[in-house]
Amino acid sequence: MVFKYDPGDAREEFKTRGFVHLKDLMTDDFLSHLDAFYKESQASAQNEKEDWKIYGKKRQYLFDFSSDEAAIEFRDGMARLLDYEPDALTISERHLKVYDEDAMPWPAPHKDRAASAVSIGLPIHLPEGSTVCVFPELEFGPNEEERAVFMTDRDHPDLEHIYAKEKAVMLHERVGDLVVFLGSSIYHERVKAGGAAILYVKVNDDGRDPLGENIFGKKPDVAPAE
């Protein structure tokens, strides 16, 4: 089992706000798998994505679900939340992100690549004060580029004060929670990230898979979750 309750219960909230924080959603079994994956990745660098390492910020590891059944339950629950057809849900990225201890505490906000229409975050290890922050009213709209776009001083001359000047929503998630937001349309960032470990699964419903990481391209030989 992956979920303690149906994420689809929050569909209308997500549709209205463009983000949602589902508290105490993940089962102990699934959290144990996340924790084991994190520890193994740190001990052996297994599945590390060297091409996606960002020096001075974070390392990234390609995540694998514990089973096809777990993957299907996750897919179907997210499809209900996002109002997607389950067979249309496409993973554009599935990375465990481990932030360097000296990562900048208040980095410039960004939008994800176009294919990462929705970002799904599952915290594994959170230092005190570390949270994802979303800016739902700051230049909302889709990033059409196949790369993340970061806010610069040219866009916002007073960028260093962006977290104080704009409507910044700190989600204050905890291990066991799940946060979901329109990653390519909403500026967002993790603050006080040093030492944090977060699984991000990023999805769309139009088949875009620029990194070749979609595990649902070939339907697993298991029955969909009820």
Spatial extent as radius of gyration = 17 Å
Number of helices: 4
User: Which strand order spans the largest sheet, edge to edge or round the barrel?
Assistant: 1-9-5-11-3-2
List the uncertain runs. Answer: 52-56, 219-226
Mean pLDDT: 91
N-C termini distance: 12 Å
This entry's quaternary arrangement is: single chain
Q: SS-based structural class?
A: alpha+beta
Helix content: 10-25%
Number of strands: 11
Q: Specify the overall morphology.
A: globular
Write structural notes for this entry.
This protein is α+β, with helices and mostly antiparallel strands and 226 residues long. It is 19% helix and 24% strand. The strands form three sheets. A six-stranded antiparallel sheet has the order 1-9-5-11-3-2. The two termini are 12 Å apart. The model is unreliable at 52-56 and 219-226 (pLDDT under 50).
Entry summary:
The chain is α+β, with helices and mostly antiparallel strands. It has four helices and eleven strands, in the order αβαβαβββββαββββ. It has helices at residues 11-17, 28-44, 68-82, 162-165; strands at 19-22, 58-62, 90-99, 110-111, 118-125, 131-135, 149-150, 169-170, 178-181, 187-191, 197-204.
Secondary structure blueprint with pairings:
Layout: H1 11-17, E1 19-22, H2 28-44, E2 58-62, H3 68-82, E3 90-99, E4 110-111, E5 118-125, E6 131-135, E7 149-150, H4 162-165, E8 169-170, E9 178-181, E10 187-191, E11 197-204
Antiparallel strand pairs: 1-9, 2-3, 3-11, 4-7, 5-9, 5-11, 6-8, 6-10
